[in-house]
Amino acid sequence: MIARAASPRAAPFGRRLLLLALLALFGLLAALHLRLSPQDLIPSRAGLDLALRFFARAWRPALTSEAHFVPEGTPPLLIIGARAAWSTLVFAAAAMGLALPLGLLLGFFASTAWWADRAPVTGGGMSRRWRQVGLPLLYLATRALIAFLRSIHEILWAVLLLAAMGVSELACVLAIALPYAGTLAKIFAELIDEAPRDAALALRLAGATDLQVYFIALVPRAAADLITYSFYRFECALRSAAVLGFFGFPTLGLEIRQSFRSGNYGEVWTFLYLLIAMVATFDLWSGAIRRRLTR
Amino acid sequence: MSAARDRQIDALRRRRPRDRLLRGSVALLLCACAGAWLFGGFDFADAWSPRRLANLARFAREVVPFPLQGQPFDPAVAWHWLTGILLDHGLSAMLATLAIAIVAIDLALLVATPLAVAAASNVTSPRPFSIGGPAPRGQAVAARLLVELARGALICLRSLPEYVLAFLLIAVLGPSPWPLVLALACHNAGILGRLLAEVVENVDERPLRALTAAGATRLQVVACGVTPLVLPRALLFFCYRFESCIRDATVLGMLSVSSLGYWIDEYRTRMQYDDFVLMILLGSLLVFCGDLGSAWLRSSVRRAT
Q: Which band of pLDDT confidence, cut at 50, 70 and 90, is reported for residue B281?
């Protein structure tokens, strides 16, 4: 007698096709709700004129200032652009310098790998009550804090901090650092939880405490992914720092906004190309790092 | 005996592969972060000056809802204030923000999928999935060119922040939801495309070789072989970008009329800080709802496979 394995009842249309159909359906419903019509895609005469003038300058970015009147002592355009790019880099680095330690700390408390293991508890450790009640509560509280930090976009943080603190460089750095710390903490905790726990088990059986297990066995196993993600976050910080310039901070966004409002579209393209070059360079560098790490 | 073992471990440790680019890059990054704080010319002492602290105190007072300012806390009054704002424009703004995010991520997926397949060097090659030995030089070069073009397009789409793109499109198209949708769709198409291309390149090639040996064309292999293999990861990236789209849609509304961001900017200009903070928290709530939706979606697909 041949034993036949019970075959699961296959749905007539797979769950995956249903998923695609759902996505398309929600997209259509959302478009209808917003009353999106193809007519709105046709720019008005003034808009078309502006678009043509703007995109015509894409091939000829300005190398010197295009303003009719340039005050005495104004540095050349490329120096202004270089300074703004440098300032963008400095703001991004400062924000990451705050976000990385904070993210590591929050990630430690948001990770379950160092206290939720079922490996035998060999003396040296915490009391049972702390392990069963205190730590899970701390874990949940940290997760809630991380979710809150992440849910507010860095531009909204900037607007909030500007309203609370006035125009200050600290507002820009905090506005990027707070949500990034939340994101870094969440991803770090997930990477550490998903890393192989062979070393952790070996150390625990040899009698290590939880902290030792975390720093010696768990973090190094996940270090490659942690580094890769940190580089990616730095690139995002560069973009965010540039965009926050639209709100008055001295980065590339400020120059872009001012040149656009003055109608000097060649200058806008110069700064845009600077921004794209900065981000693309960083992207290629972090890509090379990632390839080395995952070899 | 243990001394010999220690010497063995030491020898192994000295011979471990050390990558100079990696170490240099990590060191450079950490130095940059520390250096920015030490030498960046920030004047943080100014942030704690008495004038700024007084501002902070004033802000904290004004965040309290207007009907409750200076009065004992009354839940009924607070509830009345809250529902007033929600029914007036809060809920419709939240719905509009969600709708913008959904349309944008759908468009992004639509654009990203063909670009990702074109940018995956194991699919776009004269000998896909490493079957059949080296290809003629001309075909290999053409395929490589196509891959680099697709990757370049993805990098370009990705490098421009969506805020800048929306700013430019609003100047051209005027105050409709389209600039926000298009800006978000372009940026996320670049990101999704790059993530998907990586996943496709890392996929296990053996089932795909079997399909190709059975006579499937490249397109058939992608549709029927690659898609089920990459679906869990692709869904994860999709949900991650959807959540990001919701946050960005909230913020882009500050440039135009269509979403929560418009009201945030409106209240900020009028200095009604209580409504201002409420709108920001509503945006936060929307992100949580998006998170829950994503978690449900991913778990339902996981249960089906």
A: very high
Contacts of A234 in chain B (CB under 8 A): 29
Whether residue A93 has pLDDT greater than 90:
yes
Is residue A47 a contact partner of residue B174, using CB atoms and an 8 Å limit? yes
**B163–A147: do the CB atoms touch at under 8 Å?**
no
Q: What is the mean pLDDT of residues A246-269?
A: 90
- Is some CB atom of chain A closer than 8 A to the CB atom of B275? no
Residues of chain A in contact with residue B166, where contact means CB-CB under 8 angstroms, are none
Cα distance between residue B117 and residue B132, in whole Å: 20
| Interchain CB distance below 8 Å, B291 and A31 | no
Q: How far away is chain B from the Cα of A67, in angstroms, using its nearest Cα?
A: 20
Q: Side chain identity at A79, as an amino acid letter?
A: I
Taking CA atoms, B248 is separated from A4, A73, B286, B287, in Å, by 53, 39, 12, 10
CA distance A158 to B300: 37
Which of the four pLDDT bands, split at 50, 70 and 90, describes residue A4?
very low
State residue A9's pLDDT score: 53
Asked if B234 contacts B196 with a C-beta cutoff of 8 angstroms, the reply is: yes
Inter-chain touch A239–B96, beta carbons under 8 Å: no
Which residue in A156, A168, A278 has the most chain B C-beta atoms within 10 A of its own C-beta, making it the best mutation to test that interface?
A156
pLDDT of residue A117 exceeding 80, the answer is no
- Phi/psi at B159 (nearest 5 deg)? -75, -25
Residue of B nearest to A235 (CA): B159
Burial of B70 (0-12, 13-18, 19+ CB in 10 A): exposed
Contact indicator for B260, B250 with CB cutoff of 8 Å: yes
pTM of the complete model: 0.85
Of A34, A40, A155, the CB nearest to B100: A34
Interface contact B159-A280, CB threshold 8 A: yes
Round to whole Å and give the CA distance between A208 and B304: 41
Give me the pLDDT at residue A8, please: 53
Question: How many Å from the N-terminal Cα to the C-terminal Cα in chain A?
Answer: 50
Q: Do A180 and A95 meet the contact criterion of CB atoms below 8 Å apart?
A: yes
Q: Is the model's pLDDT at B40 over the cut of 90?
A: no
Cβ–Cβ below 8 Å for B176 and A27: no
pLDDT exceeds 80 at position B42: no
pLDDT tens digits for range B77-108 = 888 888 888 888 889 999 999 999 999 999 99
